[in-house]
Design a protein that fits this description.
Elements lengths: L8 H23 L8 H22 L6 H20 L1
């Protein structure tokens, strides 16, 4: 039995996005109707920009220790974290 009231917002968002994409695909395939007014080049460029932003944020978010001092500090920090785990 379905429990529509128990479905969370993320699930609804995915279902609605899937419905729109399928509707767009059916419209393109059978009726030459474009629900999303983008060309293949626009989609390629948008995906490239999105991937570039994601990788830039991901690479910047991580701790990038290039200097010897930073690498020693990382080792010191890891040692401190291990000591904290042994105390618990």
């Amino acid at each position: 039995m379905l429990n529509i009231k128990g479905v969370n917002k993320q699930t609804w968002g995915r279902i609605i996005a899937l419905f729109l994409i399928l509707l767009n695909q059916i419209g393109l395939a059978f009726f030459d109707f474009k629900l999303l007014p983008f060309t293949d080049d626009d989609i390629y460029q948008g995906a490239s920009v999105l991937i570039s932003i994601i990788v830039t944020v991901w690479a910047s978010w991580k701790n990038n220790s290039f200097t010897l001092e930073a690498q020693h500090a990382d080792q010191h920090l890891q040692g401190g974290k291990q000591d904290d785990k042994n105390i618990s």
